[in-house]
């Protein structure tokens, strides 16, 4: 099926038109209503299992870590894990299926919507889901002893910012990949190391200095630290740097995702 090039469509009024973004978002919400149960299950159960396994497995051996009860430490860490699982992976696999097999994007681009608006709306929708799903492990941790705090109200927003970046990352990977097998390289060589260097389940103080320096540029690590600071009431000026890392990461991979999908859909 031939794709529709920008030159062949209705002239655009401007970039990121609200009507175009709204149209794509409404379609995603309506479509999501048909499979929300399975998506919610896969995006929330796995991080919760990590919380229970590490929190009560290692928690029986280590009572405190980094000055926190181990269950509290892991509970806040798995929030960022849930954000990653509910943004990067759905973006990679979902985007690839939509343009490669279902040809959904060809149909959307036949309307007065361009690739930039399509990618942006998809990332916004996935980020919104990630912000909600990221709260599930925190609620489970509260059930197991984590003290509620007003700072927890910031967690969905932190998850949204981080989720937008990881959603754009997943979309860009899907745009540059030729098959599902290519995802294995990204998961094993990129996402897994970033996951292990995020400080979700153990502090990074015992790592070599070079690893701690690299962790400062790990968006998932900054997400973990922001969430812990919010939950434990420790937000400070240094957290502005963490927010800037997440925002900078999101903007960078957003442009990369648009470029990747533009090339893919035009080709």
Number of strands: 2
- The secondary-structure element order is HHEEHHHHHHHHHH
Mean pLDDT: 86
Report the portion of residues in β strands.
under 5%
- What Rg do the Cα atoms give? 19 Å
The biggest beta sheet is recorded as: 2 strands, antiparallel
Which shape, going by the Cα principal axes?
A: globular
* Poorly predicted runs of 5 or more residues: 1-13
Lateral arrangement of strands in the main beta sheet? 1-2
The number of helical elements comes to: 12
Termini, distance in Å? Answer: 12 Å
Which structural class fits the helix and strand makeup? mainly alpha
How helix-rich are the residues, as a percent range?
A: 55-70%
Account of the 3D structure:
With 267 residues, this protein is mostly helical. The longest helix is centred in the last third of the chain and has 29 residues, at 238-266. The chain has a two-stranded antiparallel sheet with strand order 1-2. A hairpin with a 2-residue loop joins strand 1 and strand 2 (68-69). The protein is built from twelve helices and two strands; from the N terminus they run H-H-E-E-H-H-H-H-H-H-H-H-H-H. 70% of the residues lie in helices and 1% in strands. The chain has helices at 18-32, 36-57, 70-85, 88-100, 104-109, 115-133, 135-143, 155-176, 182-196, 209-215, 219-231, 238-266; strands at residues 64-65, 68-69. The radius of gyration is 19 Å and the shape is globular.
């Amino acid at each position: 099926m031939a794709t529709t090039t920008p030159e062949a469509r209705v002239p655009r009024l401007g970039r990121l038109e609200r009507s175009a973004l709204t149209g794509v978002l409404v379609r995603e919400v309506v479509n999501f209503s048909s499979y929300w149960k399975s998506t919610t299950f896969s995006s929330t159960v796995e991080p919760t299992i990590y919380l229970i396994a590490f929190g009560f497995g290692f928690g029986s051996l280590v009572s405190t870590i980094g000055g926190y009860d181990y269950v509290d430490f892991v509970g806040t860490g798995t929030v960022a894990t849930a954000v990653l699982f509910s943004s990067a992976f759905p973006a990679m696999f979902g985007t690839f299926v939509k343009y490669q097999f279902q040809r959904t994007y060809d149909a959307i681009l036949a309307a007065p919507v361009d690739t930039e608006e399509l990618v942006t709306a998809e990332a916004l929708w996935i980020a919104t889901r990630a912000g909600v799903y990221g709260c599930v492990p925190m609620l489970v941790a509260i059930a197991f002893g984590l003290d509620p705090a007003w700072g927890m109200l910031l967690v969905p927003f932190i998850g949204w910012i981080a989720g937008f970046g990881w959603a754009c990352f997943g979309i860009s990977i899907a745009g540059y990949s030729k098959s599902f097998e290519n995802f294995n390289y990204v998961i094993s060589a990129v996402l897994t190391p970033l996951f292990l260097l995020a400080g979700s389940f153990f502090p990074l103080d015992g790592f070599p200095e070079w690893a701690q320096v690299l962790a400062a540029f790990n968006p998932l690590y900054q997400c973990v630290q922001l969430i812990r600071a919010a939950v434990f009431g420790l937000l400070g000026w240094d957290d502005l740097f963490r927010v800037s890392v997440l925002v900078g990461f999101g903007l960078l991979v957003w442009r990369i995702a648009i470029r990747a999908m533009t090339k893919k859909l035009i080709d």
